[in-house]
Design a protein that fits this description.
Helix content: 40-55%
Mean pLDDT: 97
Bound molecules: nicotinamide-adenine-dinucleotide
CATH class of the largest domain: Alpha Beta
CATH superfamily of the largest domain: Aldehyde Dehydrogenase, Chain A, domain 1
Low-confidence stretches: none
Distance between the termini: 71 Å
Number of domains: 2
Strand content: 15-25%
CATH architecture of the largest domain: 3-Layer(aba) Sandwich
Structural class: alpha/beta
Number of helices: 16
Oligomer: single chain
CATH topology of the largest domain: Aldehyde Dehydrogenase, Chain A, domain 1
Number of strands: 22
């Protein structure tokens, strides 16, 4: 069957791919397993040689790839370039510098067993399934695919059914860099293909997507105790204290809420501002929101060329997402929230555009304050104290990221440490998601495990502990036969080591 891809900004068809039927998945797994046996036995230093090749291939194609992402996901070119291509290149560089150390053997101390030594070895898992969403259709899978590969695995990638062309393009970059095509195969299709991949005879699933699907993935994986890394949704709070640089905070709030049309797992989805700073902050936010240029980010000309337009906010991915966002905004208004700007779909544009929207005083029981919105909507709530802001920020089942805004660093750090979130920024938002050196992941229902950095790389490894002795002694102190003499020695040792 064919899977068609339409631009969410123009609604025009941009291409199609062949879908992978669930029954075909076992064949993909067999090819991957065969290729992984060869790849996994290649020494690490040799495997790492793919990295500079990939960097060259990606540098050569980066503008083309960013244009495709912009077209297929409806986002401004600059966002595709900055938040998808740069992080991918950064991951390649990070791995070139650090993968040998992170994946290499690690010596560990053994206390009183001075005649022994232990080494941790980081081994490939085998075949890894990577299931990804549409919101960063290149950057999210690329950084994980390359990490899984250098760790010695084969990868089966299931891109979102809403961005299949970007998934194909990603695999093409690896092929151009010389990777065996069976080491990275793309399975196209919707949730049924994803579910078949999770159920298949693979060794790990890295899933990025919604909490609801993440729970289904984990339940299926539990049947065979398949390890999972889950990167799920967020409802991320921004805490603005009265001593913050309000102009910077307003710039951060507007970018944090509206970049990628608010379809970022770490978007600012709730803003708590101290009452004393509220009117100035809100005025700045509304003025900056009104100044945003929204429109079609990239269009195919009659000549076939792609023309990039300078816009700040693009389209949402589809009708269902747009309607869900609008319903949340309408309910928030019905429950007493005050609409300050935006609040409706853009009927004057062909695709799924929603006006950047700011509200205030939305009651906490509204869906807009409880559930992930994943759209360009910023609800601002006034609070009387730092204490109240922290309490409200933590009152969520999500805990992906959060930010604290204050000129007083010590106060900001104290508040930051009380926030339940996988990442907390002081006077910034989102940006470390794009850095390979910093780990990414959440607490609570925002997920399990980490991607990026050393922690993320090791999620693609088995850890083998190898232990050996230096000297050919006939027995050990803790072995048979037990005797008073040995016990005396053990006690002396305990006194020496632990007193
Ligand atoms: P989604 O859960 O609908 O789909 C994600 C992927 O899972 C798609 O490829 C889909 O085809 C596949 N899928 C669907 N049903 C499946 C099943 N039963 N088994 C296996 N795979 C299945 O999510 P989405 O709408 O594509 O993405 C948006 C969500 O992703 C948001 O909630 C967002 O917060 C989250 N997200 C999280 C992060 C993070 O790093 N924490 C990053 C980006 C997006």
């Amino acid at each position: 069957m064919e899977l068609k891809s339409n631009s969410p900004a123009t609604l025009k068809l941009i291409g199609s791919v062949r879908t992978t039927a669930p029954e075909e998945v076992p064949d993909y797994v067999s090819r991957a397993r065969e290729a992984q046996r060869r790849w996994g036995s290649v020494p690490l230093e040799k495997r790492l040689r793919i990295l500079p090749e990939l960097r060259r291939a990606l540098q050569a194609e980066r503008d083309d790839v960013a244009r495709l992402v912009s077209l297929e996901a409806g986002k401004p070119f600059v966002e595709a370039f900055t938040v998808e291509l740069l992080p991918s290149l950064d991951m390649l560089k990070f791995l070139e510098h650090h993968a040998a150390r992170v994946l290499g053997p690690e010596r560990i101390g053994l206390g009183w067993f001075v005649h022994k030594r232990s080494v941790l070895e980081y081994l490939p898992l085998g075949v890894v399934g990577i299931i990804s969403p549409w919101n960063f259709p290149f950057g999210i899978p690329f950084t994980s695919v390359v990490s899984a590969l250098v760790a010695g695995n084969a990868v089966l990638l299931k891109p979102s059914e809403l961005t299949p062309l970007t998934g194909e393009r990603l695999a093409e970059v690896f092929r151009r860099a010389g990777l065996d095509p069976d080491l990275l195969q793309v399975l196209q299709g919707d949730g049924a293909t994803g579910a078949a991949l999770v159920a298949a005879d693979i060794d790990k699933v890295l899933f990025t997507g919604s909490v609801a699907t993440g729970k289904r993935v984990m339940a299926e994986a539990a049947r065979t105790l398949k390890p999972v890394t889950l990167e799920l949704g967020g409802k991320d709070p921004m805490l603005v204290f009265k001593d913050a640089d309000l102009d910077r905070a307003a710039n951060g709030a507007v970018w944090g809420a509206f970049t990628n049309a608010g379809q970022v797992c770490a978007s600012v989805e709730r803003c708590y501002v101290e009452r004393a700073a509220a009117s100035e902050f809100i005025e700045l936010v509304v003025a900056k929101t009104r100044a945003l240029r929204q429109g079609i980010p990239v269009e195919r000309l009659a000549t076939g060329e792609l023309a990039v337009r300078q816009v700040d906010v693009g389209a949402m991915i589809g009708e269902a997402q747009l309607e869900k966002v609008h319903e949340q905004v309408l309910e928030a208004s019905r429950l007493g929230g005050e609409l300050l700007c935006g609040g409706a779909p853009r009927r004057d544009l062909p695709g799924y555009f929603y006006q950047p929207t700011v509200l205030r005083d939305v009651p906490p029981e509204a869906k807009l304050m409880q559930e992930e919105t994943f759209g360009p909507v910023l609800p601002i709530t006034l609070v009387d104290s730092v204490e109240e802001a922290v309490k409200l920020a933590n009152s969520s089942r999500y805990a992906l990221s959060a930010s604290v805004w204050s000129r007083d660093r010590s106060k900001a750090r104290t508040a930051a440490r009380r926030l339940e979130a996988g990442t907390v920024w002081i006077n910034d938002v989102i940006y470390t998601y794009g850095l390979a050196a910093t780990p990414w992941g959440g607490f609570k229902e925002s997920g399990i495990g980490r991607t990026h950095a050393a922690l993320g790389l090791r999620e693609f490894c088995h850890v083998r502990h190898l232990n050996e002795g230096y000297y050919p002694v006939k027995t050990e102190l803790q072995w048979y036969p037990y005797s008073e003499k040995r016990l005396k020695w053990l006690k002396r040792l305990a006194n020496f080591l632990y007193s």
